[in-house]
Design brief:
154 residues, mainly alpha, 6 helices
Length: 154
């Protein structure tokens, strides 16, 4: 295209049409009216009773959720974990209390020999524990899928 044609085209597009200006002004007035109407309808008188009622409802929902999620299985799991922690703490306390300073005296040598042997690591027991943990994890996953299937069927 020649530069003259491009200039003419630009001049024609830069000049706004009268009909579009009128349409735009009508649209803006209509949108203002809609916005004002929406603001009026969205404003509500909120009383103290309404806020209290909504707060009570939220507390009741939370209480119901806690009751449904807490079960005997969770309590048993918590008891098991706490007993394991207590057992570990007692063994560590015993080892600290019975720990005798390292020295090269006759009395310390005889007391060390009197102590029973404490195994540090057993690879066979570790392998069994890993397998047991794996199967426990698989069992939990299967249990979850069964529950999901039951809820989906209902």
């Amino acid at each position: 295209m020649s530069s003259k044609l491009v200039k003419k085209l630009l001049q024609q597009t830069n000049q706004p049409l009268d009909s579009t200006n009128e349409d735009e002004s009508k649209r803006t007035e209509q949108s203002r009216k809609r916005k004002a109407a929406a603001k009026l309808s969205s404003v509500k008188d909120v009383t103290k009773e309404d806020t209290l009622q909504s707060h009570i409802q939220s507390i009741l929902r939370l209480d119901h959720k806690i009751q449904t999620s807490a079960s005997t299985v969770a309590q048993k799991s918590f008891a098991r974990h706490s007993s394991n922690m207590k057992k570990n703490q007692t063994t560590s306390l015993k080892s600290k209390q019975s720990a005798i300073g390292v020295s090269n005296s006759r009395s310390s040598a005889s007391s060390i020999q009197k102590r029973t042997h404490e195994p540090t690591f057993n690879k066979f027991k570790a392998r069994e524990k890993r397998e047991e943990d794996y199967y426990e994890c698989v069992a939990k996953a299967l249990k979850k899928t069964r529950k999901k299937r039951k809820t989906a069927e209902d």
